[in-house]
Design brief:
about 350 residues; mainly alpha; two-stranded antiparallel ribbon; 14 helices
Length: about 350
């Protein structure tokens, strides 16, 4: 607060108090301490190689960029340039998409692979940044996404014997720890925001884990396991980040159609729409958690189990979210009809979430 890195009250914001937003610095400290410890462990240290070093350096750079943005509100072009430079640090350390499972296995030319890598990193960073609109929302969504990545990469490394899946397993485990440690301070009512320093750091780590998983595993080894494993490493980042990416796409289209800049902030994000339907802050966050888990869990299950099992898992989570929405709407409607008689029901909903 003394440094001036806080969010004043704005018309598009949900919070009602001035809140500090250098939470990304705390996340970086957690990452740095973990990497420092892991690099000296005899077994897990095998995962800390050139790629992990590049991810740490790129994460440090993007965190510093985010700190400056949180304090001085950098323009969009400067942030995009910084994100591209962070992706360049990843490229220098071998974190690059090398092939795509298109018509079998298509090896990418070096310049094309580098371009796709930079674009992918920037898309994921901004998707996480866009969804950071409610207390605890981005933190929880990234934790769910990283958990899905960890399960997938761990199963590849341990069950299927793909030893090079160790690096993404390490990075995603670090992301989950960072998010779970930060969430108690960031859940509504938030005591601190992650800010761009945290959102861009999480986006870069998540995209890096995806790239090391999709682009660095032996393509020929994957194809021997069947077409699903060949395709899912490419689709997994987009499926587990479906909610942020959908929100990002809708925001860009909406703003361009309205004749505004695609980077202009507004109150029409997905979480704003759910709030407008009558859900509370916490209820909206939990609903979006469930929708994210629906995509993430069903995708990971599809890689190692029959398709019907994957669909069943996704449907169960979807039904739970719909039941919660129905309960919220019913309680709101009863409250409007009988303001005094539905307080216990509303309290029960609040306790549930």
């Amino acid at each position: 607060m003394r440094a001036g890195a806080f969010v004043n009250l704005r018309s598009r914001d949900i919070h009602t108090e001035i809140t500090p937003r250098w939470g990304g610095l705390a996340m970086w400290v957690a990452m740095a301490l973990t990497f420092m410890t892991v690099s000296h462990l005899p077994l897990v240290g095998k995962s800390f190689g050139r790629e992990a070093t590049g991810i740490f350096l790129a994460g440090t750079f993007i965190m510093i960029l985010g700190i400056l943005d949180d304090r001085y509100d950098l323009d969009a072009l400067t942030k995009f340039a910084g994100q591209a430079l962070a992706a360049g640090i990843l490229l220098l350390h071998g974190v690059q998409i090398l092939w795509l499972p298109i018509n079998g296995i298509m090896t990418l030319p070096a310049n094309i692979g580098q371009l796709i890598t930079v674009l992918f990193v920037m898309v994921v960073i901004n998707a996480v940044n866009f969804v950071d609109g409610l207390d605890g929302l981005a933190t929880g969504i990234v934790a769910i996404c990283a958990s899905a990545f960890f399960a997938f990469s761990y199963l590849l490394a341990v069950v299927n014997g793909f030893s090079r899946a160790g690096a993404p397993s390490l990075v995603t485990a670090v992301i989950v720890g960072m998010c779970l440690g930060f969430l108690p301070h960031n859940f509504h009512p938030a005591k601190i925001f992650m800010g761009d320093s945290g959102a861009m750091l999480l986006g870069l780590l998540l995209s890096s884990a995806a790239i090391t998983l999709t682009g660095q595993i032996d393509a020929n080894a994957i194809t021997t396991q069947g077409s699903r494993l060949a395709l899912l490493p490419l689709l997994l980042p987009f499926l587990v980040l479906a909610i942020p990416l959908i929100d990002l796409g809708m925001a860009i289209v909406r703003r361009i159609r309205a004749g505004r800049s695609p980077f202009a902030a507004d109150r029409e994000h997905l979480h704003h729409r759910i709030l407008n339907l009558g859900a509370t802050h916490r209820q909206t966050t939990v609903i979006l958690y469930l929708w994210t888990a629906m995509f993430a869990a069903s995708t990971v299950v599809a890689a190692f189990a029959p398709l019907w099992v994957s669909i069943s898992v996704g449907m169960i989570i979807l039904v739970l979210s719909l039941l919660l929405i129905g309960w919220i709407w019913k309680s709101k409607r009863n409250l409007l009809r009988n303001p005094g008689g539905s307080s216990e029901a509303m309290n029960a909903v609040e306790v549930l979430v």
